[in-house]
Amino acid sequence: MRGETVTVVTAGSKVDPYSQEAVESWDDADTIKREVLTVAPPEPRPSGEPVQDARNAVTSGWTLYLPAGDPIDRANRVRVRGIEYPVQGEPSDWGRGIVVQAYRTEG
């Protein structure tokens, strides 16, 4: 079973033009990116539609199996097949590596 290369994205920082303080930035030019080869293929999460009145939303994402010791955490985002997803919760120990849940809701 072959893995797949995904990109782990970490927020950078920039100076807020109003407060002149350093703030987190997800602008592409400010972020720090590193590629990681998963230890198993990314597993699609089932899509879901939240049950709320007057809201058409879809949640979708991936379960990723990364090498043991990878420093990813919930402050990161991952780019899988060209789409960026926030990491949800803390990674779990899988025995052969770590499991990361990454999904987003649109709409």
- What is the CATH third-level topology name? Thrombin, subunit H
Low-confidence stretches: none
Overall morphology: globular
Can you list the strand order of the major beta sheet? 4-1-7-8-9-6-5
Name the average pLDDT.
Answer: 88
Give the domain tally. 1
How many DSSP E strands? Answer: 9
The termini sit apart by 35 Å
CATH architecture annotation: Beta Barrel
- CATH domain class: Mainly Beta
Biggest sheet layout: 7 strands, antiparallel
Tally of alpha and pi helices: 0
Query: Could you say which structural class the secondary elements and strand pairing correspond to?
Result: mainly beta
- Radius of gyration computed on alpha carbons: 16 Å
Main features:
107 residues, mainly beta, two-stranded antiparallel ribbon, 9 strands
Can you give a write-up of this model?
- It is a single chain.
- The protein is mostly beta strands and 107 residues long.
- The protein has a single domain (5-106), classed as Thrombin, subunit H (Beta Barrel), CATH 2.40.10.
- Helices cover 0% and strands 57% of the residues.
- The protein has a seven-stranded antiparallel sheet with strand order 4-1-7-8-9-6-5, with no helix packed on it. Strands 2-3 form a two-stranded antiparallel ribbon.
- A hairpin with a 6-residue loop joins β2 (12-15) and β3 (22-25).
- The radius of gyration is 16 Å and the shape is globular.
- The termini are far apart.
- The mean pLDDT is 88.
